[in-house]
Amino acid sequence: MEENVKRPKRVWLIFIWFVLGGVASFYQIYRISSGNVELPPGVEQPSGILYYLQAVGFQFLAMVAATLMFLRLSINCWVFSFMLGASIISMLFTLLSGGVPEQQTTTVIVGMLFSLGIYALITWYSFILLASGYYKDTHNKSSQQDASEAGASA
Predict the structure, then answer these.
(1) How many other C-beta atoms are found inside a 10 Å radius of the C-beta of residue 4?
(2) Which of 49, 53, 76, 79 could form a Cys-Cys staple with 69, CB 3.0–4.6 A?
């Protein structure tokens, strides 16, 4: 892909979704941490380093991955893959540790599976972009290789 080619609409959508979602999540985490939000019955005030790694770290990583995709850097494929694996572990930990109130278990599980499906699709799409030569670092290598193969066959 050349430098002046427009980004696919899906890349714009992913970028905007993760950046706006990350900002909104950071604001919500701040409000919960400062006690400005009334939590539903059965939900305890989150605390501990693991909660903040899940909440802040994952949102920050998602914003970085989306930005890397927007900037056409292929490393985002591996960042999205890491996020997918980390979200699976995080979801299992949350469910097995009893971090979900019993009256909300079904809703939370459906939400977790839906978000996991979205992350899987975005990870798959980032690898599709890698195969198509969308990223700057892979496009230059494939273009040079194609040119050298064309020169050798002539």
Answers:
(1) 5
(2) 76
